Amino acid sequence: MMKLLHLNLNHCGAAQTIRELNVDVAELSEPYKTQTGCFWAADRTSKAAIWACSNRAPAAEAVYSSDGYVCAKLGDIWLYSCYLPPSLRLEEFKSRLDNLATHARGKRKVVIAGDFNAWSHEWGRSSTNARGRSLAILNTGTSYTFTRADYGSVIDVTFASSQIASVIQWQLSSHYTASDHTAIICNIGSRAQQAAVQEKRQMYRVDALNPEVFASSLVIPELTGDANKQTKMIMESVVAACDCSMPIRGAYSRHHPHVYWWTNNIAKARKKWLRARRAYQRARGSITSSHLGDEFASRRRELKRAIKESTRRCFLQLCDEASSDIWGMAYKMTVKKLKAVRPAAPSEDHMVNIVQTIFPDTSYMAPREMLQMNHTDHISVSTDELLAAVAQMHYQKAPGSDSIPNKALKLAVRLQPEKFTGVLEML
Q: Pairing mode, if any, of strands 146-148 and 168-172?
């Protein structure tokens, strides 16, 4: 599953918007500046870009840039980000569109998103212009993707090939972006895949385990079949007891924390700055433009001042904390930065030591025939052996794919050890 964002920034900043929307890949039109980190590619005019802004995004390959669009293959999906400005003549518009279609032809899973500055009935416009007739769509509804001065239009459109269109959920985002274009979100992945991911991420609140309820709810039926079938029956009974005795944690959140100097005052100042900026952009050419421009500049100075004061204060606080707690926030931030630095390659002597450690000399060991066990012999597992092994399980270890915490599993073994020993003896 991949979360894709398309947005015409109109030269606004993108980092905070992408952080708040928590997307994996962004297809941008008219970006403010070249981004850094992860993967970034832009077309020849620097008006269209693809930004793999999350570590969850697949590695990009087969990157190709042209006039008006940039392409990259992420995983098995070909992504195209486009921007065709309204200043292009119709012949040039068609030429760039033909180049895009030629490059995308023959590829199976293709997603094309961009600002084409074209109108068509097919994506909700009341009329079709010459550009719209040149484009023959994931867009649903008639909501505007571009608004300015009480005027709206649908010029940001998304196309997908038939091989992938059925597993894409397309929607307009109501998130404030500071641009006069609306953000478009595409969740790529089947609903079954999404449900599987959500189910896997459901975890129990171990601290709220009620042992009495768990014991009364643990009902393991008479075991039949082979070892695999009996194991499945036991685990299903344990999961049912966990459902009755422990609540489920909330949905797994991929929230990224703010930088260490971020405060509520900065957040409020940023909202005021974005509001003033958008009002100023919409009023260009009107009699109130000058007044709104002064208001926008004032809000921008307030935001910069708040950030500067907060960073200075937090830096001095980090220095003081580092003197009293060397493993505190200053240490964590330093280690996080150092993780991006690749370690030097080991020397030849070091490599020899590593190989000898991983692959020791086995010439002194007994022949393989002496180590082989007679699988026809019956292996017995006593209750004391099982309880001793279970006692070594730590509560804080992460559960497996069945989400059964070790605390519940240890309790189940102590309650009905004969069920578990019977299955182990069959292995």
A: unpaired
Region label for 103, one of left (φ > 0), alpha (ψ between -120 and 50) or beta (otherwise): alpha
- Return the biggest CA–CA distance within the chain: 96
Residues 86 and 12 in one domain: yes
First to last CA, the chain: 37
Q: Which residues of 101-132 are buried (b: 16+ CB within 10 A; e: fewer)?
A: eebbeeeebbbbbbbbbbbbeebbbeeeeebb
Reference 115, options 183, 170, 65; nearest CA is 183
More confident residue, 151 or 47: 47
What pLDDT does 192 receive?
A: 38
Structure tokens at 154: 């649908």
Does pLDDT of 119 surpass 70?
A: no
- Name the pLDDT band for 269 (thresholds 50, 70, 90): very high
Work out how many domains the chain is built from and give that number.
2
How many helices and strands in the chain, by DSSP H and E? Answer: 15, 13
Structural domain for 395, as ranges? 201-250+373-426
∠59-62-63 over CA atoms, to 5°?
A: 90
**Nearest one of 278, 282, 274 to 300, comparing CA atoms:** 274
In a domain, 256, yes or no: no
Nearest-angstrom CA–CA distance, 361 and 84: 66
d(CA 180, CA 366): 76
* C-beta neighbour count of 12 within 10 angstroms: 21
Structural contact between residues 8 and 30, judged by C-beta atoms closer than 8 angstroms: yes
Interatomic CA distance for residues 53 and 39, integer angstroms: 7
Q: What is the pLDDT of residues 221-262, one digit of tens each?
A: 888 888 888 888 998 899 888 888 888 775 444 555 677 788
Residue of 46, 36, 61, 44 lying closest to 9 (CA atoms): 46
For the four alpha carbons of 369, 372, 377 and 379, in that order, the dihedral sign comes to positive
Task: Tell me: pLDDT of 306 over 90.
Answer: yes
Average pLDDT, the chain: 77
Of 199, 201, 217, residue with least CA distance to 209: 217
Query: Which of 172, 193, 214 delimits the end of a domain?
Result: 193
Give the model's pLDDT for residue 125.
Answer: 46
